Amino acid sequence: MTKKQLAYFGQRLLDERARVMKELGHYDESFNATLQSSDGDLSSYSFHMADQGTDTMEREKQFLFASQEGRYLWHVNEALRRLYGSPEKFGRCHQCGEEISFERLDALPHARLCISCKEKEEDGKRR
What is the reported pTM? Predict the structure, then answer.
């Protein structure tokens, strides 16, 4: 992989990291927002069971999305470590050692496996 391509993927990963951090910041704000501030009520308790259920479902949904973003951030950070730690190995499949196609890395800059190895991995999970 050329230095220009490495710089391109480095910038893509840094941009993606900034986007995810911003998204996680929004989730943090919404987790910290109380019901009192969101609906203007002086009490932070819902009076109706249906309202409580809706509030709980919304919090769980936000937690799920934040958890997914957190896992994605971990993958992006790992890719940055690989890129800066051993740039000669970045873009190489961790299983077979072949070069991962530019198109795959462009679509998924944190990819660790080439398409064929990823397909084998997913086939193994399905069984």
Answer: 0.73
